[in-house]
Amino acid sequence: MKAGPLQAARLVMVRDLRLAFRKPSQLLQPLMFFMIVATLFPLTLTPELSRLRDAAPGVLWVGALLSSLLALEFLFREDAQDGTLEQFALSGQSLTWMLFAKTCVHWLLTGLPLALSAPVAAVGLGVPAEAMWSVVAALALGGFALSLIGAISAGLTLGARRGGVLLSLLTLPLAVPILVFGADATQRAITGGEIAPPMYLLGAIAVLGVTLAPLAAAAAVRIGLE
Amino acid sequence: MLNVSGLHLWRGDRHVLRNVSFTVDAGQCLLLTGRNGAGKTTLLRAVAGLLDPEQGEVSWRGTAARKSRGEFHAELAYLGHDAPLKGDLTGRENLRYSIGIRRAVAANEIHAALERTGAQPFADRPVRTLSAGQRRRVALAGVLLTGAVLWLLDEPTTNLDSDGKRLVASLIEQQLAAGGIVVAAVHQDLDLGSGSVVNLELAAA
Amino acid sequence: MATWTWFHRFGSPPWVYGFAARWAPWFGGAAVLSMLIALYGGLILAPPDYQQKDAFRIVYIHAPVATMSMAVYSTMAVAAAVGLIWRMKVAHAAAAACAPIGAWFTVATLATGMLWGKPMWGAYWVWDPRLTSELVLLFLYFGYMGLRAGIEDPQKADKASAVLAIVGAVNIPIIKYSVNWWNSLHQPATRLIGEADMDWSMVWPLLLMLAAFFLYFGWVMLIRLRAELLRRERNASWVREVVA
Questions:
Q1: C217, C101 contact by CB (below 8 A)
Q2: Pairing outcome for strands B55-60 and B63-64
Q3: H or E element in which residue B77 lies
Q4: Disulfide: which of B96, B122, B138, C114 matches B91 by Cβ 3.0-4.6 Å?
């Protein structure tokens, strides 16, 4: 009895999660990277919290982008190297759904933990306590959109030399709207303004990403497997 | 059932496949022979739909494979040079996932397939601790479990000892007897007892 | 069917090579001619702007190259899509030929914009939506060219960069409409025809410059396309005949 696309996607998610937890040390790396980046700014800019607060949205979002890019390299690379990605493409199931599942796992293991631990970094950047929930929400939503878009560039750079640098170069232009709105939402949260407008825009990008990005990623992966 | 006609494929500047045509029917086995670089792997991948030929067509059961890719792949099992297994999972877990995304598979089915290919003794160790030959046996169990009608095998006996080579031959014979089709790229002749075998020699570019 | 004959002709590299050879000089000549006339009209004939005096004249370069930066990308994306869907080698070659031209147009847009920004706003650069998305366009061009260079296999490079070009096309409407969607420092679109915001004596050189740059793009693109086709088909018999 042939499995449906959702079933196949669910199984891929379970597989990826199980694999990730077999190497727990790797899970922490993007998070550590984010913390290091967030620490570098107070060290190099200024220790004054009031001035750091102005830079906080930028620092948080650039840090989130950089650690997301770091983790994106591993989204497809291992599966491409050992031939299991090829088997996905040959399974007769929807590659789009399976790659969407992989992207969701990537976010669950990278973007979401990052968003949840952002308050730790944010405190060091002078972000007031009332803003924390909004900071977490914006980073979580934006991180999801980043993972979706990053999946496209990860697929495109599968067969390329210096894939890591190229992946960042390709993801950046597409990630700019996410950064702009996400930082805006964070800024408004810090100054106590209305965060709904940029959050809605972030949500719209995420929805657009969910519908289109896995399709583009699947096309990119099939090309990369040739 | 499998018909390839007028296949031309370039990889970069090299005209790797030149006007390749053949037909294979149920119960038949096509053995691809030729020197290194002759295009055996390329042909298998083109038939599987992983590579896009510049000219020519692959059709399965009368329809172009490109048009009904999902259905074609559901009836196809492809085994490349390296066993497609995740190193951090055990052989059994690997099969549970790789077959599970195709069809619902029960634990005793997996057990039976692993027994058949002699992989049962090491099925519960992480694949990265296995030798290349052991991995191939797990991968062959995977091919069995797909229940696919068409097998595309790229040098299936690599890394196997003489027992393993006999295993591959008997698996292929079993598949042919069940009305399946096997297209295999081989370096030496595979000793297949019964079943009709056709040879296709590919010339290097 | 006449349209299908055209389509098939454009799918044949030697035919396109000959087509480009015949038409390129005409594009070139027309481009030079219209540019000279337009520059005369814009720099000499048109009266100075009542606010910006003569500084506004940079619009005769800035606005057309800005439009071209987006138009070339759109052409590239369409060619890439055609190459991907109908598997036409010539379409992929055309997309590859467009990319560096578009990148230069984008650089010219940003440079002329900066030169204009200093007298207009007092700053060489502001991070407003239109400028930022134009900068993003430049990164997209770099990414496209970088991806092409980074993939060894030419067919894979063609297809992968085609997907990138298509995905990146979402940026084009963002650039175009960003001045309408957000309050920004960059001025919104000026109506040129009908209920015009600008006097006709200022408008016609602008339109002619745009046409001139389009012709210029056509000229350079056809030349690059010929070189691209020769390179890709260097082992084919028609190339050996041409070179002999």
A1: yes
A2: antiparallel
A3: strand B76-79
A4: B138
* Residue contacts between A and C (CB atoms, under 8 Å): 67
Q: Could you please report the per-residue DSSP string of C86-141?
A: H--HHHHHHHHHHHHHHHHHHHHHHHHHHHHHHHHHS-S----HHHHHHHHHHHHH
- Rounded to whole angstroms, the Cα distance separating C192 from C207 reads 9
B-C Cβ pairs (cutoff 8 Å, strict): 10
Give pLDDT, residue B205: 54
Who among C139, C151, C174 is closest to A160 (CB)? C151
Per-residue model confidence (pLDDT) at position A220? 95
Report the distance separating Cα C34 and Cα C227, nearest Å.
26
C168 touches chain A (CB under 8 A): yes
Work out the pLDDT band at C9, boundaries 50, 70, 90.
confident
Q: Residue C97: its pLDDT value, please?
A: 96
Contacts of B196 (CB under 8 A, 6+ apart): B27, B28, B29, B176
Q: Which two tokens stand for residue C213?
A: 């740059």
Distance CA B140, CA A44 (A): 57
B173-178 contacts at long range (C-beta below 8 A, 24 or more positions apart): B175/B151, B176/B27, B176/B28, B176/B29, B177/B27
- How confident is the model at residue B13, as a pLDDT? 81
Q: Are A90 and B49 a contacting pair at CB < 8 A?
A: yes
Q: How much is the pLDDT for B38?
A: 84
Domain housing C214: 57-243
Higher pLDDT, C203 or C76: C76
Residue type, B153: L
- Asked if residues A27 and A109 have their Cβ atoms less than 8 Å apart, the reply is yes
Q: What is the pLDDT of residues C218-234, one digit of tens each?
A: 999 999 999 999 999 88
Q: What is the pTM of this model?
A: 0.90
Q: What is the ipTM of this complex?
A: 0.92
The answer to whether position C43 is within a domain reads no
Name the residue in chain A with its Cα closest to that of C152: A160
| CB-CB neighbors (< 8 A) of B13 in chain C | 235
Asked if C155 has any chain B CB less than 8 Å from its own CB, the reply is yes
Distance from CA of C155 to the nearest CA of B (A): 7
- Assigned domain for C152 exists: yes
Question: pLDDT for B74-114, tens place per residue?
Answer: 999 999 988 999 999 999 999 999 999 999 999 999 999 99
CB B67 within 8 A of CB A54: no
The closest of C111, C159, C116 to C135, measured between CA atoms, is C111
Is B80 in Cβ contact with A90 (below 8 Å)?
no
Segments of chain B with pLDDT less than 70: 189, 193-195, 204-205
How many angstroms away from the CA of C235 is the closest CA of chain A?
23
Count: domains in chain C: 1
Inside any domain, residue C32: no
How many Å lie between the alpha carbon of A90 and the closest alpha carbon of chain B?
A: 6
pLDDT exceeds 80 at position A112: yes
